[in-house]
Amino acid sequence: MDLRMEVRKSFGAFNLQTDFSVSGEQLGVFGQSGSGKSTLVGLLAGLSTPEEGEIFLDGDCLFSSRRGISVPPQLRRVAIVFQQPCLFPHLSVESNLLYGFRRCAAKHRSIDLAALVSVLKLSPLLKRGVNNLSGGEKQRVALGRAILANPRLLLMDEPLSALDDALKFQIIHYLKSASEQFGIPYLFISHSLLEIRLMTEQVLAVAGGRIVGQSTPEELARERMGQSQVGYINLLKVDALRKMGGLQVYRWGESELFISAGDDSATAMFELSSRDIILFKKHPEAISARNLLKCTVVDTFPSGNKVGVELKCGSETLVAEVVMQAADDLAIQARNEIYAVIKASSFRRLG
Amino acid sequence: MLSLTNADHEAIALSLKVAMSATLLSLPLGFVFAYLMTFCRFRGKVLLEVLVNLPLTLPPVVIGYLLLISLGRNGWLSPLLEPLGIRLIFTWKAAVLASAVVGFPLLVRSIRIAMESIDYQLVQASRTLGASRLDTLFSIILPLSRAGIIAGSSLMFARSLGEFGATIMVAGSIPGVTQTIPLAIYEYSGSPADESAALSLCLVAIAISVLVLLFHEFLSAKLARRN
Fold this sequence. Notes:
The complex is a heterodimer. Chain A has helices spanning 37-45, 73-76, 93-102, 113-119, 135-148, 165-181, 193-199, 217-224, 324-330, and strands at residues 2-11, 14-23, 26-30, 52-57, 60-64, 69-70, 78-81, 153-157, 186-190, 202-207, 210-215, 233-244, 247-252, 255-259, 267-273, 278-280, 291-303, 306-313, 316-323, 337-342, 348-350. In chain A, helix 3 (93-102) runs parallel beside helix 5. By secondary structure, chain A is α+β, with helices and mostly antiparallel strands. In chain A, the strands form 4 sheets. A 6-stranded mixed beta sheet of chain A has the order 7-8-9-3-10-11, sandwiched between helices. Chain A has a 5-stranded antiparallel beta sheet with strand order 2-1-4-5-6, covered by helices on one side. A 5-stranded antiparallel beta sheet of chain A has the order 14-13-12-15-21. In chain A, 24% of the residues lie in helices and 38% in strands. Chain B is mainly alpha-helical. Chain B has one domain: MetI-like fold, CATH 1.10.3720.10. Helix content of chain B is 76%, strand content 0%. Chain B has 11 helices and no strands. In chain B, helix 1 (6-39) runs antiparallel to helix 8. The N and C termini of chain B lie far apart (44 Å). The A-B interface holds A 45-47, 72-74, 76-80, 82, 84, 86, 88-90, 99-100, 103-104, 129, 131, 145-146, 149, 151 and B 119, 121-122, 124-132, 135, 139-140, 143-144, 226-227.
């Protein structure tokens, strides 16, 4: 999917002005509340009209003030999954799912209801009304409804914000797998860097109505590490091994991790803040923390008044964060050996 | 004891016919007005709103008089109506028109309240799923406004049944032709001998109003359960 957007739109004192081109299947827009993310969504979907500029999607002009073109929303094939599921309350789950499908030109009806229902595990819900569904079920129906319309771009406008953490990571799985399986490119909009990292390959950072950066989510996370209150969040995918002394032992690459928040489910994802990793130049003696990892320094990078340290633990990567003084004391340099110490309670389970 | 004459039966039938016709005729227009007021922005919207709601505050006799001078033989609209052979004044159709004008704001208000309670993102979702404005109107806005349409229609029907001032001005009180229940009661009230006849018609009016309100409650509850 290729998107080019050069538009200007004002709301009172707020002024959105963007000029960017982006290509890819899993794109993200990251920014705080009020930065202009949802305005961008509205302009792209045709729900609001720019004062001037041009919007091109896959080479087709959706809007051009110069040429007097403004394709109406129903013809753009740009569907939205909103923060709230926005299901039609007078229709059943099945009728909601088929709403866009029935309005889709026959040549675009490439997605089969049965296949989608199977991927999103919706079959027990089909005949039900939508008002008594749980939050996660509603969001799955909203996603299915948008996918069945077979859009050439799916806009996901903070679709996880209204969900609690546990549900959020279940839905992320559905959002990603369904879009991938049916070949629908998406633009995922969020103020959560973690969600952006889990969902996207390339991200546009928005602030004050302007695009202030275009990078990979990983680069953005490292860049923002110093300003973030939680530092850089390492995402660790692990496999359960055994219980030991009240802790769960997991396999993480070639290393073993002791985690207090774990359970014995086969695989799990944990987050670990860069601030919860203590670095030692030499092997420390008799420590209370349960995880001691021998690592190699790959690189260091500045982030605000801190220094990020990229470490290699076997085949896995970990990012730690130290103040400038500590970096000097440890004489951190690429290819140096270093020891990372992590408490078992520092990990937080995702989902 | 309920004692009704043939003329009373005619007045009841005419009242129902006038109220039903006024409601059915106003419904499409009321829906369009409510839609325009809720979802559209245009120049002169405030003025239109004032005009639609004016019958709520004007004395019905004033409305009747304005209709009379508009639709009468030498009225403002007679050059349009006469060539078509349309004569409204002192016919039951004039009673329908009077009821429609007086009840219209109630109908629009109820539908508008229902439309305003629709989450606008549902409308946006519908548009991005391939529905045109008209399709969204019929597939989303209309079904989600049903409670307001029912409430507004019931109110308008009930208001039309009780319409007196404007009706007597434009339709008169001709038994069997334009005499509705309120007009018949008014005629009876002038003579002490007709007290029981007036009371009988009052009871009929109360019974019809109660039935209308019960019907409204029943449909509203059914819709609420479905939603």
